[in-house]
Amino acid sequence: MSAKNKVIASSKRARVDLPMPYGWFQVLYSHELAVGQSLPLEYFDQELVIFRTESGVAKVLDAYCAHMGAHLGYGIRDNAGGGSRVVGESIVCPFHGWEFNGAGECTGIPYAKNMPPRVARCEKLIPSWHVREANRCIYVWYHPEGVEPIFEPIVIEEVSVDNAEWGELQIHEWDLDTHMQEIGENAVDAAHFCFVHGTPEIPEPTEMRFEDHCRHGLFESKMETPRGTIEGRIENSSVGPGLSVVRFSGICDTILMANITPIDAIRSRAKYAFIQRSDGGKTSRVAQAIIDDIRQQMEEDKIIWAHKRYLEKPLLCDGDGPFAKFRRWYGQFLIEGGDDDRS
What we know:
The chain is of the alpha+beta class. It has six helices and 18 strands. It has helices at about 5-15, 115-120, 180-185, 190-195, 285-305, 325-330, and strands spanning about 25-30, 40-45, 45-50, 60, 85, 90, 100, 105-110, 130, 130-135, 135-140, 170-175, 205-210, 215-225, 230-240, 245-250, 255-265, 265-275.
């Protein structure tokens, strides 16, 4: 690599110099993991495996078998192209058939006459992860120091599978070349809506609150429609840095689960799922236009995030949003260093 290219590469690595935040993060939608299925995951700068036991419970482990290091997320023979086999409540290593439950304990070695002492003592051999399943999503708790969960994911009643008043999820996903905090700051950056997304004016927040691990914002505006003037509301709430719900009301009631998960410190995955009030299985042009507009906004934001540099002390003016308050709130989730002691 030339000296010039070395400088460029170093500059790219330094665009955002922040640790990954801790919290609950979405790794899959529930329907993406069937009973008896396993899949590899790459999040939090780590290789993981997720599997659903025969009793229907989702489990997540570090990816590598404690026996000889095979990746548990890649099957062979009848399972080639998919994950490893799941038998009962355990995942089966494709290399030598060792079985591990969701706690990382070895539950069986098919050819061993005498179990290794650590297996016989039922010790945890593979680090396991805390998992929650709600809102048709599967969430994993990440903390760089292995701290137990200190809050829980939000529960969104409208997304419940037995709520007939709301339709099916419309799912969209983006991989973003930036740290999660850069994405989160959009929630308080009213001015960018005008210049990045072409809104006719800069929206003024009616309410903005930061409380413990939660954040809440409200924007209200009058919208002119063929049916007259309508009071529009955009209410957005976050629990931790990774899970957000946005409620749009006025023209067409729409809920957006806007969840962001760190792939590593400088790459994030956005999982956006829209749900709207049920209309006999149909989506009106107006309803679809709301979703299309938000998707277009993400494509526009993506360009900015991929090339901007994070400034620890930005030069702000009185028309900018409450960046300082947001960063103080977000900063509680950022821990430098730390050793994960889940094992």
